[in-house]
């Protein structure tokens, strides 16, 4: 088994066997990233393949540090670019009536499996889901999100608040229906 460094060096030299090992090592984790930012498996696969091509094209730019973090940034940026390109086809976001409510019912969340929680998050409207993932999952701050998406920082904050409110309602409905069984 080759070390990560050997695989990266092989990829830099264009070795197909190294590229295949890199793909096998990271494809599951990177597909999960793509799935969080898209509305369908088909769309996630498009972003996934485009991002992997970028990884191989830009691997010579990698110069140390967390390789997975470097890759993840390429995948997240590719997903954001995909979102921007397809934005005109998506429903426009409603920026009015900001609700500054956050979920307080942590018990509902703790009773769900990771997969169930991911399914609920994936039901969020696209704009909410994008900002929720960037802020909560990837750890970007509102200023960084605003720059990436070319929106106002306040819009990022309001979309996160709306996403949390939306999630809270969904989780409460889920909890009520599970308790009714």
Automatic annotation (TrEMBL):
It holds the Pfam family Sigma70_r4_2. InterPro entries: RNA_pol_sigma-70-like (IPR039425), RNA_pol_sigma-70_dom (IPR014284), RNA_pol_sigma70_r2 (IPR007627), RNA_pol_sigma70_r4_t2 (IPR013249), RNA_pol_sigma_r2 (IPR013325), RNA_pol_sigma_r3/r4-like (IPR013324), WH-like_DNA-bd_sf (IPR036388). Residues 115-167 form the RNA polymerase sigma factor 70 region 4 type domain. The keyword Transcription regulation applies. Keywords: Sigma factor, Transcription, Transcription regulation. Gene3D superfamilies: 1.10.1740.10, Winged helix-like DNA-binding domain superfamily/Winged helix DNA-binding domain. Signal peptide: none annotated. This is RNA polymerase sigma factor. It comes from Pontibacter locisalis. The lineage of its organism: Bacteria, Pseudomonadati, Bacteroidota, Cytophagia, Cytophagales.
